[in-house]
Amino acid sequence: MYAIIETGGKQYKVSEGDVLRVEKLGVEAGTSYTFDQVLLVSGDDVKVGAPTVSGATVDADIVGDVKGKKVVVYKYKRKTGYHKKNGHRQQYTEVKITKINA
């Protein structure tokens, strides 16, 4: 059984026991979280939402907050002496899917 959920403007295919990184949720580690934006549930039969499946939720436990790889942003204009270096590390929340309620 799997489901497709939407969080942080992205869609994820999840099944029970999966650990995935989603955009930062702002929830403490060790607590539970419920995703209510379920777009599709597949088990014995497939339920497709329009746009979401009514009454379907996905329960997850928050593992913790992590940071992604560093991305270096370098701006440069020739002949003017202009250059600027900047970096960015995206923050994620790791979640473990515990149950799919359909």
Can you tell me about this structure?
The chain is mainly β and 102 residues long. The protein is built from no helices and eight strands. The strands form two sheets. Strands 2-1-5-6 form a four-stranded antiparallel β-sheet, with no helix packed on it. Strands 3-8-7-4 form a four-stranded antiparallel β-sheet, with no helix packed on it. A hairpin with a 4-residue loop joins strand 7 and strand 8. The chain is elongated. The mean pLDDT is 94.
Q: Can you summarize this structure?
A:
The chain is mainly beta and 102 residues long. It is 0% helix and 69% strand.
- How would you classify the quaternary structure? single chain
Strand runs, count: 8
Could you give a short account of the major beta sheet? Answer: 4 strands, antiparallel
Strand content: over 45%
Helix content range: under 10%
Distance between the termini: 10 Å
Choose one word for the global shape. elongated
Which structural class matches the secondary elements? Answer: mainly beta
Question: Which strands sit side by side, in order, in the main sheet?
Answer: 2-1-5-6
Over the alpha carbons, how many angstroms does the gyration radius reach? 19 Å
Mean pLDDT: 94
Poorly predicted runs are: none
- What is the number of helical segments per DSSP (H or I, 4+ residues)? 0
Order of helices and strands: EEEEEEEE
Question: How are the SSEs placed, and which strands pair?
Answer:
Elements: E1 2-7, E2 10-15, E3 19-23, E4 32-35, E5 38-42, E6 46-48, E7 57-77, E8 82-101
Antiparallel strand pairs: 1-2, 1-5, 3-8, 4-7, 5-6, 7-8
